[in-house]
Amino acid sequence: MRTGLLCVVFGVVVACGGADTTLGNGDGGPGDDSGQGGDVNQPPSDGGGDSGDSGPTATCDGGLVACGQQCVDTSTDKQNCGGCGIVCNTTCTAGVCQLIASGCDAGVTSSVGDNACITIDGTNVYWGTGLVNGGSVWSVPKSGGCPQMLIGGQSGPHGIASDGTSVFFADEGSSQSATGTVQSVPVGGGSPTSIATGQAFPLDVAVDAANVYWTDQNDGSVWKSPKTNPSPVKLAGPAGQYHAGYLRVDATNVYFTDPSGGVVKSVPIAGGNVTTLSTQVSNTGHLAIDGTTAYFASRGNTSSAMMTIALNANQGTPNQLVPNLPTLNGIETDGTSIWFAEASNVQPYQQNTGEIHRVTIGGTNDAKLASGQNGPNCISVDSTSVYWINTGGGMISKTGK
Description:
The chain has one helix at residues 108-111, and strands at residues 65-67, 70-72, 91-93, 96-98, 115-120, 124-129, 136-141, 148-151, 157-162, 166-171, 180-186, 193-199, 202-207, 211-216, 221-226, 233-236, 247-249, 253-258, 263-268, 275-276, 284-289, 293-299, 304-310, 319-325, 327-333, 337-343, 354-360, 367-373, 376-381, 385-390, 395-400. The protein is an all-beta fold and 401 residues long. The strands form eight sheets. A five-stranded antiparallel beta sheet has the order 3-4-31-30-29, with no helix packed on it. Residues 1-46 have low confidence and may be disordered.
């Protein structure tokens, strides 16, 4: 893939559930890191490099891109993979950097093959892998390399977020016996800290400067706890199974999707009444926010759409921003553009038909940044790059924003 020169100013970015966070997404988590007091998945530091020598800009032909005074092929150039200054220490193919290097310790690549959700901080990409090795949490440098296992022996880590010091993750456990947990582990690995136990099916995680937040998908509740001296507090619910999905936070509220209700809700961080922002659509999923708007997935039986609703709405009618998507599996924004993962609705995901797109806040100028992906899911972004997992194939990838 060859792209033009990308110049994006980093503004408000939101975490995953994974994710997708807003201290600067994941799914999550995830995910999301802008200094706005939300969940931490997209920080200012980006793992990028020098985009070219100072001086006149080169004039290029033959499909090459001007990166300063150099003409480069951004589809293969490891110093400009998918955009100027996007450093890739591993393999750059079609403008996509595959972050997990080959030739690492035996078993590493196969051990990260069952990916759940993703987040980033200023240095690393972090993700949970659900079933391999009993479940584990991993990191890899943002420019690529050999992954490091931060913790193993888990039931099924999913939602994940980082504040640059610790990685917070939800381990789903068994919904039948409420064995799910929320934990933190140092970014370099080490002994975990228990945030919450006895959770029915914790799904998504977000953090801000003081707290960690999560949803419990099995009973439809939303929680918070101080990151230090953990003391869980229930903010919303229980509203019943599948009535709490993905979440994001800003300085005032926690925003979360209610998949079964088909709506987006908010609840004050300090506690209080739950507000239903939107009227009902089909099966709400992944979520991102900026300073004014929530962007969320609506999943039907045969297609998905990206919807928007104002953060201060109350039973408002959502706007359809991007219609007719096969499966919308991840959303992130920096307040100017939105990035999303579009997976094939043909099973299994290993059909190599997934794509990564960028669209403006107004829904115009859709740009395909990557194609041929195996079930892309859970997006994070920083000042230069967009990161995602492939649920099929066990790959962590990035390209230029």
